[in-house]
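Quick bug: AraC family transcriptional regulator output formatted oddly.
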Amino acid sequence: MNKMLTTNQGLFLFKTEFEQESLKRSDNCYKLIYSLGGKTTYQLSRQDITFHADQMLLLNPYDAHRQLEVAHHKFLIELDPQMVNNAAKTLMDHSANIQFAQMPQQTPQITKWVAFILDYLQGREEDLDKSMEVFLDNSFIQLAILLMKGSVNNQYHDINEEVYRSVNFPIRQVMEAMKESYNSNWTLDDMAAIAQLDKYRFSHVFKEKVGVSPFSWLQIYRIQRSLDKLQFTNATILQIAMESGFSSVSMYNRLFKKLYGMTPSYFRNSRNT
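Here's what came back:
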């Protein structure tokens, strides 16, 4: 089916035919681009991001982006910024607008949500009627709530391991161990030993189940743990980078900007104004 439905809270788009986009676009909405199968690649201002089946990319309002490759189907949701931020402020008690990390993300809850929406709309050829509009509006609000705690963003200063409860037990054991000692000098051998797997097998399984490599997950978790220190302490950026487990402040600054499109200093100043 090819379908585009627009409501007060957002837009649903499902396409089986598409062309590569020649120009970047930036829209005043949050976008969830979900890969239903195969490889999907988008070009952003700072990097190209490739994600695979059951993974997603979350774009913030006015993030410039261009579709480079989409396999199989295109599933896209646009969410009204006011609705998303109202949900964030209610759930997280923050006044600043939410920023989603620019990275492949993968959570079982979003996978189930996508499957439910597609199942509901499958075979419905009629135009948007009142019942479907109410259904989609409520579904978009539900999606916003799932994204608050189930995705990596700058409001929730952690990575919620509950979203990985369906991931096999050794992988979760490694996650829990890394979270307990996130500023330690971890190696792939250390991680694989906890999982009791060959390190190459462990790395493959971790990326397949979580969406990023084990070391990337650790670095992202370090960024998330640093957000509280940026917002609520007077520690220098160098101190925060070192205490968070980074080998240099330049690496910390580079990854922070890659994820959130701003420097740690800018994030700190924006929260203290």
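Actually, after a second look the formatting is fine. The two ends are 48 Å apart (CA to CA). Closing.
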